[in-house]
């Protein structure tokens, strides 16, 4: 009898879904938000009692995964194009909403060369190119891959604006996402890199890095859009709404994200 009861218990546990886990929605989040997001989900939990599970990555990668029915309930992209392409393909609930405007910076290891001035923020790239062309070394310049990372697209546009894209080709090292590009930018082999302003403000980087802002008109606006996906449940919907509120926008502002509709910083 005891054996039968144990067998019934095992079968019941096997067939019973893990409700507590299943109720936690998975959110696809652009890696530019990696340092801001822990505080966002902590405050959301404190306010509502609800939790979300987060996957970080490149927006273009998430776009492909969502198009292939990845089980995300909410997607926070680092651009608009990824969300709008999914909307046009009919795999989102609507066209989404812009939740923040991102910014680009030149990031370099603290004390490793002179920090470029605001009037010439890519002077370090020019110096790296000159060093390489003189045969005196190969200092690397990091950026996210423009093929699937919006901050990589902005980095390429900034380098093109400064006339440095072609000449910097032998020096470029590309991260799969902007967070990885920031790690590459701070290695011993690198002169620095073009990454998200939000990453430069991360507490873990403050003591080991320094940065200078890239003018906003050197690249297309980094309008970051989010969207609910068809399987979104109540918690994902509540989080989506909460992210548009004052508390969430105040947290994002501390990590360098501009609120939608605010005057653009130059």
TrEMBL record:
Binding site for molybdate: 32, 59, 178
Signal peptide from the UniProt entry: 1-22
SUPFAM superfamilies on file: Periplasmic binding protein-like II (SSF53850)
MF GO annotations: metal ion binding; molybdate ion binding
Alphabetical list of InterPro entries matching this protein: ModA (IPR005950), ModA/WtpA (IPR050682)
Keywords: Metal-binding, Molybdenum, Signal
Pfam families for the chain: SBP_bac_11
A biological process from GO: molybdate ion transport
Family, per entry: Belongs to the bacterial solute-binding protein ModA family.
Protein name: Molybdate transport system substrate-binding protein
Originating organism: Halomonas cerina
